[in-house]
Amino acid sequence: MADKNVDIQSMVEDWARDYFRRKATKKQRKLIDKDYISLEVDWKKVKFEHSEPKYEPEPPAPGSGVMKNHTLFNTTFCNKMANPQSYTFRAERTTRSSCAISIEHSVTKGFEMNLKLATPESIMEANAGFKREMTLTNASGQVIEEELTWGVDSQIQVDGRHEAEAKLVILEEDYKGTFTVETRIRGIVRVVFLNLKDNNSFVKACEGPVTDIVRQVLERKKISGDLMSIDGANQCVVCKTRGTCQFRYGLQQKVEVDQVKL
After folding, report:
1. Which range among 6-10, 37-41, 77-81 shows the weakest confidence by mean pLDDT?
2. Distance (Å, rounded) from C-alpha 160 to C-alpha 147?
């Protein structure tokens, strides 16, 4: 079974502690043995490049997916007169377009997960309120919501001695699928060692290509599956994020009117 999450920050910290122990003086070794050495990892010179997500199955064109009606507002007009009467049907309501995301496998940076997930093009075309990119910060998953406002201002003609029920109805579409995003990581990562016993004073620092650091860790710790690998030709770490998603959004509105005799 593949690892659920891999923390690249912990990998760098393990590499840095190993470096510290190999280069430490006798005094410094005592400090780290007594947990008086803290680490600060600097990622400023490291780039995280995310690919476009691959959705399966292919998200449907607007209006061709799983659809259902949802009544936002309804009201009744009662005409007790013999002649037809005209009534104003006016309403405004707000709905939420939502995307529920669950992460199955990912690479995190400490407790952080900062992944840009592009919204499927077909869902963007539906004008459902979603932004072009969704930012994922929770490694287990999250729900992203956007508001949509619907409105109606129509004249309803009601026959004499009839009662009419008018409804503002939206047509909702639902898409469920899986996604895969490939992240390429390259650059120089720097680690600073601080002495907790001496008011966080500077002890030393080390740095190295993130590709070499991850390669050394992977030689000692096997990660199952294809969650993380090394692309030697392009000198980068390749990570894959996989998950499931469910989009639910309003697609269009309509007014339904039903009349019955009094």
Report:
1. 6-10
2. 40
